[in-house]
Amino acid sequence: MTMETLTTIDLNAVAQHYNKAAARVHKRMVVCAGTGCMANGAMPVFHALKDAIIKAGMQEFLEIELDQHDDCHKIIHVTGSGCQGFCAQGPLVNILPEETMYVKVRPEDATEIIERTLVNNEVIDRLLYVNPVTGEHNRGQLDIPFYKLQKRLVLGECGHVDPEDINEYVAHGGYFAARKAFMELTDVEICDTIVESGLRGRGGGGFPTGRKWNLTRVENSDKKFVICNGDEGDPGAFMDRSLMEGNPHRVIEGMMIAASAIGADEGYVYVRLEYPLAVKRMRKAIEDALNAGILGDNVFGSDRNIHIHVMEGAGAFVCGEETALMASIEGKRGMPMPKPPFPAQKGLFGMPTVINNVETLAAVPLIIRHGAAWFNQHGTANSKGTKTFALTGHVANTGLIEVPFGTTLREIVYNIGGGVTDNDGKVTHEGFNAVQIGGPSGGCLTEEDLDLSLDYDSLQAKGAMIGSGGLVVMNKQSCMVQIARFFMNFTQNESCGKCVPCREGTKQMLAMLDDIIEGRATEETFHLLEEVGNVVKMASLCGLGKTAPSPVLSTIVKFKDEYLQHIHNKHCPTNNCKALRSISIDPAKCIGCTACARKCPVKAISGDKKQLHVIDPETCTKCGVCFEVCKFDAVIGFN
Description:
alpha/beta
């Protein structure tokens, strides 16, 4: 299939042509080529599989791209895909149509995969995923609980289609919704459909998308913009990145529909500089859509134009806030502005502008294609559809997941996630401590919240928020004061400094948290920390400052006793706070080998050979060297 075929904009013909070629495929091998798997060595695996096919004498059947060869009906199609979600198990190789998925594949496995699986249809057990709870081998995504228990709508094609092949996207129904929006629906009908669907912004605020579009649509202006916010900066979050890498055309199609709804003729995709693969694939997708006549002038013969640009952000977390993001696009310093006016009235370059995040826009083509009723049958009364989450931390199955709103935390952590792990990575049935949801803007959920419905309203009532979708699971070996400090340190560093409450308040909160974990805090410190947090929350200019205290305030409520132990008893219950550790040598285990005394960098350990050794607490820096060198587990006080 050549790109020229698409210039007629006959999407039906393109889909039929591609599907005819795909029907000739005997075996399809899909190598995950998302950032996670690429970092783990996916490309060497990809090339090793191709080489192994050639060495096996099957090069005449090998096709990297689906070209039309009517004389061949046993094509082996080897392709890369976007993120398949199961990041910790990568590199991943899916073999279709058998639905066999191999995990943690290495280049040296390629020959065996070709000889045993591709040629003889044998399954290689050692490359299958092993369920950490049952010990069973699961053959593929249809069997693995991590996949089986999800509802992948927005992520449905990620990991299955080649993100750099516009033909394959069209063959899967791509750009048909955009054509419908430009050729069949009025701007009012598009907005009404999105309103009826109940779609809310997936970037954190949860504002109804249809209402936002309507506010921009009714503005009288010769120039309007649509912006895709891909400035995903939450620690541990990679939902938007994976969508841009895995299905960039879906994001572009969502932007096109938004542009048709509000009357825009130009758009920007604002992507973090740290996402080079997402930038590369978004730019290629835009170029291919332009060459195909899908983007550009006279879209679908509608006499309307839409041009889309990709801009790389410099990595400032505050640029995820819409007014700061627009300032960055305009070439100014990325700093938030007071609202009103809202972007719908005065946005990019002073023109009416709609800003939606990547996941929100990726859901739009599905709604236009299948209808509002289809979309809002998923989720809860006020939180329709599904939500992607980046599941990380002390959980057996880490990765990217998608579940309907209303799914409980228990379902995610214990069923999809496979259970909580200890610090050695082993599943433990009683180790759950908390989940930080929504990243540095979110809050903390504890064991009593395991059966809480994850939706906008339920989380708000608990002092938390969906945010962009970060889910960090923590076991009972985690110090919650240190967790609060981690997020406060992040937001303090990322504060743009424009308003005093955020600039100075976060700095003071961080200093008080340091006092607590280093043993200098008093009861007054605790109360002042909470007071300053509430002031920062109320008085800050933008969303970054208003939500910056959330991790601290929520842990103060949920883990007050842990804070007070740090303050009153100068004791960290998890023994993670270095300054509060009580280090000693167990007289029952010490044999006087002198290894600890010889290695101690500050000479804090004394004792004669074959005699009990002791540690001087005034001199000891609690560096842990003695714990590491002792072969008899005699040093007490380290985890």
